[in-house]
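Database export, one record per block. Field names are fixed; values are copied verbatim from the stored entry.
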Amino acid sequence: MRWGTIGLVALMLLGAGSAQARSFKSTYKSKYAQFDFSWSSEAAAVPALVKRLRAELRKAKADTIEGGKQEWEIRPGIGWESSTKITTSGQSPRLLSLSRTYWAFTGGAHGNGQTTGLLWDRSLGKEMPFASLFTSASSYGPVLRGPYCRALDQERRKRRGGDGKLNGGIGEFDACPKLSDLAIIPADSGHDGRFDRIHLIAPAYLAGPYAEGDYDIALPVTGPLIRLMKPGYRPSFEAQRQ
C-alpha cells in the first residue's frame, strides 16, 4: 500500500528544501596534509546538523594538519591524508538517513577507512541510534542476525571461492560479527520516501582481512521488522517481498 497524499506532499516539500540547501565540500592541500570533508544537500538543510558537522570538520582538519607536520619531521616527504564524505541513503518526512565514509592515511603501511551511519529524527531535532526505532532496543537483533550471517557467508564465498573459509586463517574472519559492531544504515532504493533496505557494513579486519575490504550487506525491510518498531516510525518503512 502506497502512502497517502499528506506523505507525498511532505516529501516534495523536503525535496524542495534540500534543493535550496547546497551540498558542501571543504578541501585543503599542503606538503604536510591533504584533507577533504563534504556533506549532501539533505544534510545541509538541517541547521543543527550543519553546526555539528562544521565543528567536526574544524577538528578533523586541525588534527590532520598537525599530525602531518609531526610525521614530516620524522619522515620527510610523508604527510597525512583524511577524507570524510557524508551522503544521503534515504529520507522520509520524519527521518534522514546518512552514510558517513571516512578514510585516512597516518603514515602506516596503508590507509584505513570505516563507514558509519547517522540517523536524524526531524521531529526530535537530533541524531538517534538505529535501536531507538524499536519498542525494545534489543528486539531487532534476532530478526536481522540470521539473514545477515547467511548473506555475509554467501558474499565471502564469492570473494574467496570454495566454501568461503580462510584456510589456516584467523577464526574471527570466518565468524559472523556482532550487529553492535556494524554500521546499520536504512536506505531508500526506490526513492519514494520510505526505507526498503537495511545496510549492515563491516569494515576491513572485522569480517575479513584487509585485502577483502568492507562487507556491505543489504537486507530487505520485512513486515516482522516493521512490527517491532515504535508506531511513529513505521510509516517511514515499507516491507519488501521475500
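Remark 1: The two ends are 16 Å apart (CA to CA).
Remark 2: DSSP finds five helices and nine strands in the chain.
End of record.
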